[in-house]
Amino acid sequence: MHMDPRRAVPQTDSLLADSRLIEPQRRLGRPRVRDAVHSSQQRVRDGSLPVDQLIDDVLSGLPARATSFTPVINATGIVLHTNLGRAPLSDAARVALIAAAGYVDVEYDLVDGARAMRGRGTLAALRAALPDAGDVMVVNNGAAALLLAVTVLASGREVIWSRGELVEIGDGFRLPDLVVCTGATLREVGTTNRTTAADYAAAVGERTGCVLKVHTSNFRMTGFTSSVPIPELAGLDPPLVVDVGSGLLAPDRLLPDEPDIASALRDGADVVTASGDKLLGGPQAGIIAGRAALIARFRRHPLARALRVDKLTLAALEATLGGPRSPTALALHADPTLLRSRAEAIAARLGDEARVVPSDGAVGGGSGPGVALPGWAVSLPERYAALLRAGDPALVGRLEGGRCLLDLRCVPSPADDLVTRAVLACR
Fold first, then answer.
1. Given 77, 185, 304, 388, which residue has the most CB atoms within 10 angstroms?
2. What residue ranges of the chain are covered by domains with CATH 3.90.1150.180?
3. What is the spatial order of strands in the sheet that 398-400 belongs to?
């Protein structure tokens, strides 16, 4: 007489109490482990799994982490890869995130026990980084920074904006649509290729809320073109809002055509908006800097509450501003000679299939369009690309000329051994 297989299956609660499943429950949560237990129990019932292998089967079916995100080693050579999360955080910022994950004094004064300004340490660090700003503010992304500024200054009024700057950026996002949703009316001036200071001056009137100048990101025009620099626009009466986009705090010789916040303020912009997760190298955030009276108005607007950042962003941004050079800065300014020696060392361990080839990296994230970052890559047969993406962490290179290139620009040197082992595991 055969025993009913359902009677041979241990109870769920007894399995969850097994010492081998305690740590996974703490790491992943009891519901996720319970679901894996149920799946393994069913395999025992249908006869495809011996009961003495049940716990091992549960453990093998559990994910490595409580998020569906898979860590990626960025070997594309694109520093600010939007699809891979743009700027990676520095070690200092990661430590700050962990510190902020529990209870922290984000809005609390530990001296007198009263409520305090939210994120005051982060704001102080941003003021120190931008001494030309009357005041600063942080919201949840670059688009939110522009949204808040235009809403406060021009809702129900006109925004004067050059036709040559009415751009669409990634994923079909059109900046004119963002401005219109604030309740402002666009007053387009100039033509697609040429706008003059006289065009702006002629458009200024009683209904003007602000003049807007936007960095066109990775869209460029050449030939018979003209645009108006910030100092000439600063002489107009309405507030001048300048969106520099990339979050570059100060000029960088590597990126001579990339606008920066400090220069825009010195040139006379009343408000400057930017992203924190691009060239600044921090978390996703929107930076607003400018005249103190205007920042005070932004802070009091009801929309500011909807756009405010959480404690994790504040902690990571403060650590980025005051900490060591960010991974973004290190990758942008990586020494090509060192990149070549690292690539050669990896290729030597991989054998005949691997070659070392020149590789031009890119800034990415709509920043530094056309700027080539000379470097070197390990070149492998194309079939490796999909195999490497299936790993954990995933190793993402780029396909070029029928080969899989692993550009080391954005790969920290301590990860070279991990890269080598990932390739060897694909054989």
1. 77
2. 72-84+329-425
3. 78-80, 355-364, 367-381, 403-407, 398-400
Residue appearing with tokens 């402002």? 184
Render pLDDT for 336-366 as a digit per residue (tens, 0 to 9): 999 999 999 999 999 999 999 999 999 998 8
Asked if residues 268 and 74 have their Cβ atoms less than 8 Å apart, the reply is no
Q: Indicate the helix (H) or strand (E) that contains 214.
A: strand 208-214
Comparing C-alpha atoms, which of 313, 337, 370 is closest to residue 87?
A: 313
Confirm if 236 and 204 have CB atoms less than 8 A apart. Answer: yes
**Per-residue pLDDT tens digits for 298-340:** 999 999 999 999 999 999 999 999 989 999 999 999 999 999 9
Low-confidence ranges of the chain (pLDDT < 70): 1-7
Please report the pLDDT score of residue 5 as a whole number. 52
Phi and psi at 245, nearest 5°, equal: 80, -70
Within 10 Å of residue 171's Cβ, how many Cβ atoms?
6
Contacts of 314 (CB under 8 A, 6+ apart): 100, 106, 118, 119, 121, 122, 138
Tell me: domain 91-324, CATH 1.10.630.10, correct? no
Asked if residues 294 and 63 have their Cβ atoms less than 8 Å apart, the reply is: no
Q: Dihedral (C-alpha) 247, 248, 250, 252: value to the nearest 10 degrees?
A: 180
Asked if residues 140 and 275 have their Cβ atoms less than 8 Å apart, the reply is: no
What does the alpha-carbon distance between residue 369 and residue 360 come to, in Å, rounded to a whole number? 13
In sign, the C-alpha dihedral spanning 86, 91, 92, 94 is: positive
Which pLDDT value is given to residue 8? Answer: 79
DSSP one-letter string for 346-369? HHHHH-TT-EEEEEEEEEETTEEE
Is-cis flag, bond preceding 63, omega within 30? no
Residue 217: per-residue pLDDT: 77
Q: Which helix (H) or strand (E) holds 399?
A: strand 398-400
Q: What is the pLDDT of residue 1?
A: 43
Q: How far apart are CA 285 and CA 282, in angstroms?
A: 8
Tokens of 236: 């107009």
CATH 3.40.640.10 occupies which residues in the chain? Answer: 91-324
pTM of the model: 0.92
Q: Are 164 and 192 in contact (CB under 8 A)?
A: yes
User: Which fold would CATH assign to domain 72-84+329-425?
Assistant: Aspartate Aminotransferase, domain 1 (3.90.1150)
Residue 101 CB neighbour total at 10 angstroms: 11
* Residue 283 near residue 277 (C-beta atoms within 8 A): yes
